[in-house]
């Protein structure tokens, strides 16, 4: 993945945020959430190249255990 290019991540299973990659160290990307001074270290599988890719996974509503989740993150 390239630095200084727009990417997207999903926060709280439903909120899509625009991010920029700062660096890659130890198998994790350091990213900056656009419009804030917040920096995160995330696994490459959490980064999406387009908004439509991210919105497809955000809208699924299922976690890896097969249980449904509500928008606020509480289990049904």
Automatic annotation (TrEMBL):
> What is the name of the protein in this document?
HTH LytTR-type domain-containing protein
At the highest ranks, the source species' classification is:
Bacteria, Bacillati, Bacillota, Clostridia, Lachnospirales
Residue span of region Disordered: 53-76
Q: Where is the composition biased (Basic and acidic residues)?
A: 65-76
């Amino acid at each position: 993945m390239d630095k200084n290019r727009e990417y997207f991540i999903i926060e709280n299973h439903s909120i899509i945020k625009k991010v920029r990659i700062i660096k890659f160290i130890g198998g994790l990307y350091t990213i900056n959430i656009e419009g804030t001074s917040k920096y995160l270290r995330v696994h490459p599988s959490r980064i999406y190249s387009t908004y439509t890719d991210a919105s497809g996974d955000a809208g699924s509503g299922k976690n890896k255990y097969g249980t449904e989740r509500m928008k606020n993150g509480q289990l049904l």
